[in-house]
């Protein structure tokens, strides 16, 4: 079983179980990573965003902004401004309006960022248009 196939399984705990069974069957030792690590990777955050933003053009625009702002690192902190998270909210605590877990949960940061882009610019695509001109949004 490939790791790509395992990533498609809905639950990180279930994925680790599948890996453990496959490893045991193959006679391999498995050093399992904590389930939290699977939920906070860049690719996992991107998958969450894709589910939250089903429109391809809007997702692509959101992806461009987040890639430039944080590289999909949900704990990214700008040392000079203090901006925080995937969408580099300033101050980061603004994201608490989307959930108390804003410091650690990419989904909460995505929700806040999407709401911000929609309310300030009309859509992620319009936010990306602004970003391309000003290099901030």
TrEMBL record:
The keyword Signal applies. Residues 1-37 form the signal peptide. InterPro entries: Lysozyme-like_dom_sf, Transglycosylase_SLT_dom_1. The keyword Signal applies. SUPFAM superfamilies: Lysozyme-like. Residues 59-125 form the Transglycosylase SLT domain. Keywords: Signal. This is Lytic transglycosylase domain-containing protein. It comes from Streptomyces adustus.
């Amino acid at each position: 079983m490939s790791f790509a196939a395992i990533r498609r399984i809905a639950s990180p705990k279930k994925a680790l179980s599948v890996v453990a069974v496959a490893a045991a069957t193959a006679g391999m030792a498995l050093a399992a990573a904590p389930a939290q690590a699977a939920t906070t990777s860049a690719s996992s955050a991107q998958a969450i965003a894709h589910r939250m933003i089903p429109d391809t053009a809007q997702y692509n625009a959101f992806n461009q902004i987040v890639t430039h702002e944080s590289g999909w690192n949900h704990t990214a902190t700008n040392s000079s401004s203090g901006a925080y998270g995937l969408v580099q909210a300033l101050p980061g605590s603004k994201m608490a309006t989307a959930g108390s877990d804003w410091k650690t949960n990419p989904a909460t940061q995505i929700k806040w960022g999407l709401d911000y882009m929609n309310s300030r610019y009309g859509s992620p695509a319009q936010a990306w248009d602004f970003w391309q001109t000003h290099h901030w949004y």
